Amino acid sequence: MLESQNPILSPELRIKDDRPLIPTPKACFWAIFFSMHLKTSFAVHTKLIRGLSWFFTFFFVLLTQPAFSQGVTFKDNMAERTRACTACHGEQGKAGPDGYYPRLAGKPSGYLFNQLKNFQEGRRHYNLMTRLVDPLSDAYLLEMADYFANLKLPYPPAARPSERVSQRILLAGKKLALEGDSTRNVPACSTCHGAQLTGIQPNVPGLLGLPLDYLNAQLGAWQTHQRKAAAPDCMSDIVQGLTSEDLVAVSTWLSTQNVPLNAAPAKQISVPLKAPWRCGSAPELSKAQP
Amino acid sequence: MKFPTHFWRYFAILWITVLGVLGAAIWLDNHRDLFATQPPVSVKALPEKILIDRGQELLLLGNCMACHTERGQAAGAGGRAFETPFGKVYSNNITPDAQHGLGTWNANDFWRALHHGKSKDGRLLTPVFPYQHTTLIAREDSDAMFAALKTWTPAANPKSIAKPSATLDWPYGTPLAIAVWRSLFFTPGVYVSDPQQSKEWNRGAYLAQGLGHCAACHSERNDWGAIAAVNDFSGGRMPLINWYAPSLTSLKETGLAQQTTQDIARLLQSGRTDQASAMGPMAEVVQHSTQHWRNEDLLAVATYLKDLAQKESQRTSSASAGQQNQTGAGPTAKVLSLGAKTYDDHCVQCHQSQGQGVPGAYPALANNRAVLLSDPTNLVQSVLYGGYPVATPLNPRPFGMPPYILTLDDREIAAVLTHLRTQWGHQAPEVTPLQVNRIRALQGP
Fold it and tell me: Cα-flanking dihedrals φ and ψ of residue B227, to 5°?
């Protein structure tokens, strides 16, 4: 009984602007100004030009109508539905202007969805995000994740290392990222985040194309248990084994690397993780384990 | 002046007697359950399955899980923190866990908690648990709820839940303080049907006053944290989380008197209609509770509330006839131009130049009751934090609003809200930067 009258479900979601098309004074002024200009500048009083100028008058009036120009901006699509996201994460989710709102476009869908759930279930903490995702259903969050995952946008070139960063730090970061540290049982980033470090479908994010501030903040949050993932939390175990200097080194190196031309996440992990490594939010990385 | 010794003796005896009588009265008042006969368990004859299904439905009607579940933890395992002006209170575990939950309880214990506000061990519960409302729940409903709770998976939070006596400020958490509070503001009772009204009206009243505990938010709390009455819906501020629950009876605030019961029910079911959206704590109520209600129950509550609102509007329209709204000096030109500029820069794209919004997507601001509430708290919250309406089966993919807490400063937000409240024929009071700042400072990004 209630469903039948629901206006929200109606497929017609276009603007119905009932206001009459009455030109504003400002619009009239510009229309007349331009048409006068046309008339005088041609200085040929043929019937054709005179006729055209009236046409232009009408055209300008329409063009300067606020209702006319705004009515068509609303389109019922995912870009419109994710305005609340792109206000901070940048147009089409290509990262915000400061270093704290990471890029969403092209990240693996499962990863994005897991992050939305992490905010909802208190494993990640940021009041603005939590309040936004709290009232939304899993189905809708998944749709949003898919939307951003499928946006393929070029990456800007990576930042150049600051002059104060020594070569030693960069080399240490590179070594950790690509080789790990077997003495401390720390795997290379590339083990799980793809040989190119562009992530692995569907749950592992790429590590390139992210600002230094964001990387530092995230690794720091893993270390202080402010950021968590579904148990067993493999990323947490890895970060616990590293010092703050290691974290700064690895994020400095990562933030200065250009994203390769083919930035798509890898299809699957090349060598499945050996026991006891297991990741709750990316179980497909390990071979079948209980 | 020196009193003779026997004066002091009489003085002491007098006071000891007064305190003793008062103490005995408070004790008796708080332990009525020891003397009252328990109403019999009436639904024993019902098949188990039907009993549990009914109980499950009642648990949803009461929105029990929303308060008794902490973010990211097992449903019903408790531990959610409630900030009150008297200190924090954490909700209890109501799963059938033997050690932390209700595993060792029986139906009588559960009834006593709902009806008398007392735990199994005799501890007086704090009124954060809305027993002013739950006391109205019928015994058979209580038994059904308990039967349904018994079928839940036992669970416990990793962190143990602190008792209110440890988390409330002294002396509010002491048994004596709670006992005094209860003597002043709480009387166990049952819902008595009004024979003048329809069955539907009575069902609505039973739900709104009892299980639904609407007045827990929609009624202003006094200095002692008590609501006026379970059927007082005249609107209330929620001081620490900074939301205002609008009056359900006032024509200006929610205008239920002028809406159809279908519209009222639809707001509860879908979270938004063309006239209104559920925001903040009400969005949570729609998400966890009212969207799952049966249509009959939604319409029953709508019928009851609309009837109260109609009576109230008849009463006030005759009382306030001829009264004119007193307006102050009004906002300055500088505020108005800043407001108009901010609106054009940030709001016009969705809410449109005449505040007409986009039907089905973005709410109209012109003639929107939420815009015109004299308390601007909810407006400030919406602009600072943005947000999505609840995703419900009737509105599964809502459109959202970005947060502006990092983009606009207090002055700009106050100006744009003042703009909304003075445009399109509106005449609501100005919003000041201080009002914006109070909420921003308390809650942060």
Answer: -85, 160
